[in-house]
Amino acid sequence: MAEIRLQELAHAYAPGAPHALKPLDMTWRDGGTYALLGPSGCGKSTMLNIISGLLHPSEGRVLFDGQDVTRLGAGQRNIAQVFQVPVIYRSMTVGQNLAFPLVCRGGPTPRIRQRVEAIAERLGLTPLLKRPANALTADQKQLVSLGRGLVREDVAAILLDEPLTVIDPQMKFELRRILKEINAEFRVTMVLVTHDQTEAMTFAEEVIVMNHGEVVQAGRPRDLFERPATTHVGHFIGSPAMNFLPALAVAGRAVVPGTGLSLPLPDGLPTDGLVLGFRPEHARLSGASGTMQGRVARLWFEGLDEIVALSHPAGEVRLRAPAGLGLAPGDTAAFTLRDTALRLYRNGRLVA
Ligand SMILES: Nc1ncnc2c1ncn2[C@@H]1O[C@H](COP(=O)(O)OP(=O)(O)OP(=O)(O)O)[C@@H](O)[C@H]1O
Prior knowledge:
Bound molecules: adenosine-5'-triphosphate
Largest sheet: 6 strands, mixed
CATH class of the largest domain: Alpha Beta
Radius of gyration: 24 Å
Helix content: 10-25%
Structural class: alpha+beta
Strand content: 25-35%
Shape: globular
């Protein structure tokens, strides 16, 4: 188990090619849970493969517990990696698959059996231990892949590259819980790559949001939700996404015309490219008068809540409201906003 430090790390796949991973510095605490979150092609797998040693970075260093491992191959790093597509040894039983990493390292047989049984129990694989791995469903095969990553007690970290994609939705929730339990019990550093915000936000203590090869924000799930560092993060995290409305500078404040939405402008801030943003969850419908009034454009259900899309000359905003308020498209509605809910962005970046 190890602290992982990325120092001035960057990667281009060919000399002179644009960076697939732009320069970054980051430290992941020993025993922590982390998620790399972002759309397809943003550089998540590139970063993970550099950490596992499958890929050598074109710039910078990777340190495990202070030791430079940048030029070491995957086999020398003591990392367990689980991929999107299950990797199993088809000619072996489930038990033999789970035992394989330990057998390769030559541990005592009783200890191996004990560890295999413990991990199988955690993953619900006990009844399948003697089955040929070949005969399993895709879900079960991925559980075996995960189990092979978890069975070793000496790994520096477990890297999970979209491992839940092939897993049945019911099972996903259960597996995230199991992974967290294993992390709490064995304090093994875990890094999950995903493009699914719910998966990232419910699994990790710290989420690293990436876009176009760049880390745009790294922080606790609550901080990403409350204070997105960019409008991209505000769009990408949360459902519905954060609301953003263009603002003008008026008498030292950023103001959305025709609404009560405004914030003081920080001293010296240029006044172009201003946008005010707030979360749908922080607005409360308030009858016909409030911070902003608009016309109900659309309504739809999300779980027990109703999402109300309000149209206004400044733009459309979405609010989350308890179902059964009796609103209909075309109605006039208004909302008030929680005091601390408003954020100011300039050219897409948080300024206040
Ligand atoms: N072997 C490669 N050679 C050249 N370019 C590559 C290679 N692998 C990835 N890339 C490019 O690097 C960028 C980042 O890709 P990467 O696979 O790391 O993104 P990702 O976020 O993991 O995407 P996905 O979720 O689709 O796997 C993309 O523009 C991709 O086309």
